[in-house]
Specification:
Elements: H1 21-32, E1 37-40, E2 47-51, E3 56-60, E4 66-74, E5 77-82, H2 88-95
Antiparallel strand pairs: 1-2, 3-4, 4-5
C-alpha cells in the first residue's frame, strides 16, 4: 500500500506592524456607512478621501484626458466605462467632467 502524502501547510511568518486603534475604528466605521466611497493611497490605512456623495470617479492619463470612469447609476449599482469601449464617447458626454470650472 502506498503512503498518502499531503502538501505542506503554508504559514504566514510576516511581521505585521502594530496598528493604530484610531485607524481600526476608521476602517470599521467605513464598513457600516451606506454608499461610502473611500480612496486609498498605497496601503489600506492611507485614506485620501471619503464621501457618501460620490456619483462618478474619473481616471486621467498623463495628458489629462479621461481614460476611465466609474459611474453610480443608482444606489448599489455602478457602471464602468473606459476609453476604447464602443459607447465611450456617449458616456464621456453624459458623465465626463472637464474639471475646468
Amino acid at each position: 500500500m502506498t503512503e498518502i502524502r499531503h502538501m505542506p501547510v503554508m504559514r504566514d511568518v510576516r511581521v505585521k506592524p502594530k496598528s493604530d486603534p484610531d485607524d481600526q475604528i476608521q476602517v470599521s466605521e467605513s464598513v457600516a456607512k451606506p454608499c461610502l466611497v473611500t480612496v486609498l493611497g498605497f496601503d489600506r490605512n492611507d485614506v485620501l478621501f471619503k464621501s457618501d456623495k460620490v456619483g462618478a470617479v474619473q481616471w486621467r492619463d498623463s495628458d489629462g484626458l479621461i481614460v476611465a470612469m466609474l459611474v453610480k447609476m443608482k444606489p448599489d449599482v455602478w457602471g464602468f466605462s473606459r476609453r476604447g469601449d464602443y459607447d465611450w464617447e456617449e458616456n464621456l458626454k453624459i458623465y465626463g467632467n472637464s474639471d475646468l470650472t
